[in-house]
Amino acid sequence: MDIRLKNVCFVLPTYNEAANIETTISNIHRIGNTLNKYKIFILVVDDNSPDGTQKVVKRLIKKYKNLEMITGHKQGLGNAYKRGFEFALTYLKADIVFQMDSDGQHDARLIPRFLNYIEQGFDLIIGSRFVQGGSTPDFSLWRKFLSKLGNLLVRYVGGVSSIKDCTSGYRCIKADFLKRENIRSLSTTGYSFQSELLCELNAQGAKTVEIPIIFNQRVSGESKLSLKDQIEFLLNIPRLGFRNYQDFIRYSLVGCSGVFINMGIYFLLTRYVGLSQYLSPIISIECAVLSNFFLNNFWTFQGRNLKESLIMKMIKFHSIAGLSGLTNYVIFLSLLVGFSTNDLIANLIGIAVGAVLNYLINSNWTWRKFDQS
Ligand code: GDD
Ligand code: MN
Prior knowledge:
Bound molecules: guanosine-5'-diphosphate-alpha-D-mannose, manganese (II) ion
Largest sheet: 7 strands, mixed
Helix content: 40-55%
Shape: elongated
CATH class of the largest domain: Alpha Beta
């Protein structure tokens, strides 16, 4: 019988949280004391906060046992988590790791619920703002919009469409999934680390569940989410989807074959069947889309997402074709009108972005590899 207590480590990143960190730590402790199957560790990862966070934590270290702190220069939230995970695994021998904000926005009373799911065999439990019962009462309309949009992109491009909250900072993770080489391979440094980590855990096949959280008001101070973080987030989206470049090569070959089919059928219809130039493209385009669809289904992504019907995939494929066509057009127009780009170059850039988007969503949604539900 395994009687060793499981080590649970809370990794708390801090940047200027002198006013909040004590309450956060004492809340975790209070709940931790009620759990008898676990040994609780708290690890503060402070990036030399100028507000004296470290002074507060040093005082608390004398009061609480199993409270640790590591420090460094400010290099973003993602970097802080990477260092924190490494320390938790190497020195604290963590079996289970929590990610949590240090500003009181995450309710420590939910900790037993997270652990309950670990006991049921889940590997990743996400405190989710976007499932039934979850909410973000304090978010401005703008922040809500950004968060929703960001989540949509991560879900459908990153191959995690069944997960509603991909950027949440309140999570419980089985440490086996945080081995050093996996974590080091994550390249994001800021807030987008959250979404990259999620996609990595999903790719490893972590059994995942979301539990509702109310993302409370910050107790004191303000959010550190910067414009730089938001830009990194956007730039990182394509990387979340590109796990396999061989698929992309096949997909591109199929795309090229579609051009020939489109042209060939257009030629036949106008030159031999005598159909008008206005009607013929509608037929030739649809033939190319269908041929692309079948080639991708039975060749490029063969054997993937077999649970879903062919018709459903076909509908998705068509709607994504529409979306990338629209993207192509919007990019073309904005380059042409906004930046006076040469029209051919503007269209080429539009086509390239549209094609990549098309690939990313199809390979991670229409023909996704993993399904958690
Ligand atoms: N060490 C370190 N270094 N800590 C940081 C840094 C950094 O560069 N930037 C932020 N933090 C700490 C903060 O002190 C806080 O404890 C926690 O990370 C979250 O930062 P906030 O600034 O409070 O983030 P938020 O409330 O806007 O964002 C929350 O929601 C996001 C999704 O909307 C966080 O939970 C994010 O992780 C989450 O992605
Ligand atoms: Mn916060």
